[in-house]
């Protein structure tokens, strides 16, 4: 189940909040108890050796706030905060 949730998360570019909500729904309405997003990340890292790197992005997907842009408080393309 963990790998299925990870695949769903990656395929649909879900935010951590969205994944957390899905996990809550699955746990509330299913006999299968799913893990929190951090446990899913740790499981995948242990399984594959690939570490998760989190960074902030414009909500319109214009840019990532990394490197020289990490201190910006709005998107330099669409001005979204």
Per-chain topology:
Elements: H1 2-11, H2 16-29, H3 37-48
Give a summary of the structure in a few sentences.
This protein is an all-alpha fold and 81 residues long.
Please tally the β strands and state the result: 0
Going by helix content, strand content and strand pairing, the class is mainly alpha
Distance between the termini: 35 Å
Described by the principal axes of the CA atoms, the overall outline is elongated
Radius of gyration, in angstroms, nearest whole number? 15 Å
Number of domains: 2
Summarize the main sheet: none
Compressed to H and E, one letter per element, the order equals HHH
Oligomer: single chain
Arithmetic mean of pLDDT: 83
Beta content comes to under 5%
Relative helix content = 40-55%
The stretches of 5 or more residues where confidence is low (pLDDT under 50) are none
| SS summary, helix count | 3
Describe the protein.
- The protein is an all-alpha fold and 81 residues long.
- The protein has two domains: 49 residues, no CATH class; 27 residues, no CATH class.
- The protein contains three helices and no strands.
- The longest helix has 14 residues.
């Amino acid at each position: 189940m963990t790998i299925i949730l990870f695949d769903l998360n990656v395929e649909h570019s879900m935010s951590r909040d969205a994944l957390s909500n899905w996990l809550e729904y699955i746990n509330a309405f299913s006999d299968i108890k799913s893990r929190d997003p951090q446990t899913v990340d740790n499981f995948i890292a242990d399984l594959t050796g690939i570490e998760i790197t989190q960074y902030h992005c414009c909500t319109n997907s214009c840019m990532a706030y990394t490197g020289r842009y990490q201190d910006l408080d709005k998107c330099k393309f669409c001005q979204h905060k």
